[in-house]
Every structure is written in structure tokens, then in C-alpha cells.
From TrEMBL:
<dbReference type="InterPro" id="IPR044638">
    <property type="entry name" value="ALDH7A1-like"/>
</dbReference>
<dbReference type="InterPro" id="IPR029510">
    <property type="entry name" value="Ald_DH_CS_GLU"/>
</dbReference>
<dbReference type="GO" id="GO:0004029">
    <property type="term" value="F:aldehyde dehydrogenase (NAD+) activity"/>
</dbReference>
<comment type="subunit">
    <text>Homotetramer.</text>
</comment>
<comment type="similarity">
    <text>Belongs to the aldehyde dehydrogenase family.</text>
</comment>
<dbReference type="InterPro" id="IPR016162">
    <property type="entry name" value="Ald_DH_N"/>
</dbReference>
<dbReference type="InterPro" id="IPR016161">
    <property type="entry name" value="Ald_DH/histidinol_DH"/>
</dbReference>
<feature type="domain" description="Aldehyde dehydrogenase">
    <location>
        <begin position="3"/>
        <end position="470"/>
    </location>
</feature>
<feature type="active site">
    <location>
        <position position="235"/>
    </location>
</feature>
<protein>
    <recommendedName>
        <fullName>aldehyde dehydrogenase (NAD(+))</fullName>
        <ecNumber>1.2.1.3</ecNumber>
    </recommendedName>
</protein>
<dbReference type="Pfam" id="PF00171">
    <property type="entry name" value="Aldedh"/>
</dbReference>
<dbReference type="InterPro" id="IPR015590">
    <property type="entry name" value="Aldehyde_DH_dom"/>
</dbReference>
<keyword id="KW-0560">Oxidoreductase</keyword>
<dbReference type="InterPro" id="IPR016163">
    <property type="entry name" value="Ald_DH_C"/>
</dbReference>
<keyword id="KW-0520">NAD</keyword>
């Protein structure tokens, strides 16, 4: 089956055509990766690190071209797309150094003439399945550390970003000089992927699964891996809160909420879901926020805009469903729906009829129990709620049960620390947006947002390595731990028990 990828900002523009594989394609790729893994693991880690460094340099040299392709295929504004490509470079730069670390430990033994050690071992073959809203940055968070640690990869990207995925694969394989089977791309739809993954797990060809996508699909992936006594690395959705306190710099909070809520047209797992504003500053904040949204530049992603189109028609259709969740007690600010000649937006950049463009929406009066408050809304819609004290704000922030990203705007250090202590999210920002990550800080969530696994930094290595312990006894006799217990003596100093 051949699919055609079109530009969501200009639907009549074809980005490319890609042939989709089936479940057999996935299994064959897993077999190839499984066969190649022992050889790749035998290559010294510092040498693998140099391959990662070379990939980083090749991506850096092609950054603008790759960013333009990201913009063309998913409609992400170019500045954001270029920042995403730079995340690959940052990740490669960080993991070059880990090739000379991958530290274990030397541990003291309770026995004489005995040494204890720990080592990191690669898990084996890793199946990586990613979404297309970050079609190159997020895959690199899995693939770079997994390769560095000595694993081989089967990568299945989103079916709405296939051309970018091909370019990403070519930069990695050719740029890093990777041997055959070490990194294989499989283009397939969801059903074929799930069947192929299941069969590969049954045959012992896949040792770890990494998945970025919706909470619903993540639960299925996690259950499938669990049946094979594996723990998947899951990075899922979010309903990310941003709390505005009475001491907040309101203009800064508005700027943070604008980028958090409407960057990438609200199609990030870390996008802002609900602004939770103290009652004393609610009206002032809301007036400033809605004015900023009304003035924001929306349109052609090759221009200087806050947000471009929806990623794909399926996300546009789903977003229209979210607009149906508006309840009678809500107040909608601004126009809603698809932007066009009959539903215009002032200052639109470009031709709204050419692509999948939608109005950014602010909905005031949301509260726990509302679908708009409780459930992830993947698109340019932000709820606003009101709170009376910080304990209530924290309870509201935790209510949806996701736990990915969060933010608080405050000038009070005590409020910041109380929020950090009480929030369930895996990531907390103080006076910054809910979006954004750095390559050396752990990324991931809890609850509906994931199973506690983390990407980025040294922490992701726990996903792609297993600890091996070694005890080396050179006493010349059998020493039995916990049975032959040594003790101090007054004369000899130490005596081994029996």
C-alpha cells in the first residue's frame, strides 16, 4: 500500500509517497535487528559514542533542510522545527560523553579476598514507536541512547510524517556509518505494527518497547509488553496545568500560557490544558490573555507565526469534537472552528483556505468534572479555571490524573516549593512554560502520562540497559554470603565465621 503525504498548510502540495509494510515487514526488521545486536554490542562503547557524535555533526550540517521538511510535512512553524532539529544535535552531543562513562560501581564485600562489581548491559533489540508531532526530536530521545548502550533499533514512526522519517533514518544510518540491521525503519499503519510487534515479542526478537503517543494506545502497548515480562518505556498524553498566583508577573504568565497553549497549535503532549488562576487576578489575567490570543499571528508556518495548521486531517476532526465539549456554564472567547472566508481571523498570514487552520480558543469557567477540564484536548484550546487558595489549586492541577508537565507563575518562593511538593507531574516549571525540554534533564510523566519511565539525560540509560552484578572471590575457598559472617576480634582484628 502506497500513501501520499501532503502539506497540512497547503493541502494540494504533495510532500512525498511512501510504501507501507505489513506485520511481516515488522517481524523481518526485528529479526534483522536481533541478528545484528551481538555484533553492535561488541563494538566498544566509546566507539559507538563517536558514531553518535558523527550523527550529530551530520544532522547539524543539514539542520535547515531537515527543519524545512518538518515544516512542510506536519505544518510546524519553521522556528519550532529548527529548534526540534537542534534537540537531536544536543542529544548526540550529550551521549558522546556517555560512551566513555556508562558507569558501573565497585562495591565492598562482607567477605575478605572478594570484590563486587556492577556493569550496564544492553537490553538487546528495541522497538520504538513514535508520534509525528515531534517527528525527529522524540525519536532521537529513544534511538540515540539505545544505540549508544549497544542495542539495535526497529523504529515505526507516525504514518502522517513518513517523508521526514525517511530523511531522519538516512541521516542516522549514513551519517553514523551504522552496520546493516542496527537501525531499521518500518513504515506501517497501527494495526500492522501491533500485530508485528506482538509476533516479534512472541518469537523473542524484541527485548524492549518504547512508545510515545496517546494514553489509550500506551495502555495497550504496556499490556502487550507486560505479557512478555517486559516494562515498556511509555511517554503518553497530558492535561498540563499552569497556576497563576496573586504574586505572579501577569504579562510573563500570559506569554508563557500563550506559547504553552498554542505552540504547535496545541498539539504537544506538554501543551497547556488549563490555566488555574487565583480569583483576585482572574479577570485581569483573562483580559490580557484573550487579548494576546486575539493578536497572535496564525497562518503559514514558513512565516513568523505562533501557530500553523493542524498536523493532519484526523487531528482536525478530533479537535472539532473537543469544541463540542463546551458546556452552558463556560464562556468562549474568540471565534471557533476552521478558519476560512466564512469564518475569518483578523491578521491571518497566508491563505486560510489552503490548509487545516483553526481558531485558537480560550474557554473560561472550566472546572473539575468538565470534559474540557478532565481530558486531554490535542489542539489549540485552553481552559481557564479559578481557585481560592494554593491547596485548592494543587488539587485542581492533579485532578485529571495525567501528571506529565506543570507550571506555576509566582514571586513567592514558598508557593513554588509547596507547588513542587504537591504536584503529581514528572516535570515542574517555575515562571516558565509547560512545554520545553533539555537534553540532559529527565523527561516523562506519571499516572495517565506514563509509567514512570524517563527519557533524556543519564536517567534514560536505565531504560536501555540492565544491571549485571559480578562477585569475584580470590580467597581459594568457598565463602558463603550471609552464612560465613565475619566479626571483629580484640586480638586478631577479624575472624571469618562459619
Amino acid at each position: 500500500m502506497i500513501i501520499t503525504s501532503t502539506n497540512p498548510a497547503h493541502l494540494d502540495q504533495v510532500v512525498g509517497e511512501v510504501e507501507l509494510g505489513d506485520a511481516d515487514t515488522f517481524v523481518a526488521a526485528a529479526q534483522s535487528a536481533h541478528d545484528a545486536q551481538p555484533g553492535w554490542a561488541r563494538i566498544p562503547a566509546p566507539v559507538r559514542g563517536r558514531a553518535i557524535a558523527q550523527i550529530g555533526r551530520v544532522v547539524e550540517a543539514n539542520a535547515e533542510a531537515l527543519a524545512r521538511l518538518v515544516t512542510a510535512e506536519i505544518g510546524k512553524p519553521y522556528a519550532e522545527a529548527l529548534g526540534e532539529v537542534r534537540e537531536i544535535v544536543d542529544t548526540c552531543d550529550f551521549f558522546l560523553g556517555e560512551g566513555r562513562r556508562l558507569y558501573g560501581q565497585t562495591v565492598p564485600s562482607e567477605m575478605p579476598d572478594k570484590q563486587l562489581f556492577t556493569f550496564r548491559k544492553p537490553v538487546g533489540t528495541v522497538a520504538v514507536i513514535t508520534a509525528g508531532n515531534f517527528p525527529v526530536a522524540v525519536p532521537s530521545w529513544y534511538i540515540v541512547p539505545a544505540l549508544l548502550a549497544g542495542n539495535t533499533i526497529v523504529w515505526k514512526p507516525a504514518d502522517y510524517s513518513p517523508v521526514v522519517s525517511e530523511a531522519f533514518r538516512d541521516l542516522f544510518v549514513r551519517g553514523g556509518g551504522l552496520p546493516d540491521g542496527v537501525f531499521t525503519l518500518v513504515q506501517a499503519d497501527g494495526a500492522a505494527t501491533f500485530e508485528g510487534l506482538s509476533r516479534s515479542l512472541d518469537q523473542g526478537l524484541v527485548d524492549k518497547v518504547g512508545f510515545t503517543g496517546s494514553s489509550a494506545v500506551g495502555a495497550e502497548i504496556g499490556a502487550l509488553a507486560g505479557r512478555h515480562l517486559q516494562t515498556a518505556c511509555l511517554e503518553l498524553g497530558g492535561k498540563n496545568p499552569l497556576v497563576v498566583t496573586p504574586s505572579a508577573d501577569l504579562d510573563l504568565a500570559v506569554e508563557g500560557a500563550l506559547f504553552s497553549g498554542f505552540g504547535t497549535a496545541g498539539q504537544r503532549c506538554t501543551s497547556l490544558g488549563t490555566v488555574i488562576v487565583h480569583e483576585s487576578v482572574h479577570d485581569d489575567f483573562l483580559a490580557r490573555f484573550t487579548a494576546a490570543v486575539a493578536a497572535a499571528r496564525v497562518g503559514d508556518p514558513t512565516e513568523d507565526v505562533l501557530m500553523g495548521p493542524m498536523l493532519d486531517a484526523k487531528f482536525a476532526e478530533r479537535y472539532e469534537e473537543y469544541l463540542g465539549w463546551v458546556a452552558p456554564h463556560h464562556k468562549v472567547h474568540g471565534a471557533t472552528g476552521r478558519i476560512g472566508a466564512d469564518n475569518p481571523r483578523d491578521g491571518f498570514v497566508g491563505d486560510p483556505g489552503a490548509g487545516l487552520y483553526y481558531h485558537p480558543v480560550v474557554v473560561d469557567g472550566t472546572r473539575p468534572g468538565d470534559r474540557l477540564f478532565d481530558e486531554e484536548t490535542f489542539g489549540p484550546i485552553v481552559g481557564v479555571a479559578t481557585y481560592r487558595d494554593l491547596d485548592e489549586a494543587i488539587a485542581m492541577a492533579n485532578h485529571p490524573g495525567y501528571g506529565l508537565s506543570s507550571a506555576i507563575y509566582t514571586s513567592d518562593a514558598l508557593e513554588a516549593f509547596r507547588f513542587r511538593d504537591g504536584i503529581s507531574a514528572g516535570m515542574v516549571s517555575v515562571n516558565n512554560s509547560t512545554s520545553g525540554a533539555e537534553a540532559h534533564l529527565p523527561f516523562g510523566g506519571n499516572g495517565k502520562s506514563g509509567n514512570g519511565s524517563r527519557q533524556s539525560g543519564i536517567w534514560v540509560l536505565d531504560q536501555f540497559t540492565r544491571w549485571q552484578s559480578v562477585n569475584w572471590d580470590y580467597s581459594g575457598r568457598l565463602q558463603k554470603a550471609q552464612m560465613d559472617v565475619g566479626e571483629l576480634t580484640g586480638d586478631a582484628g577479624f575472624r571469618l565465621g562459619s
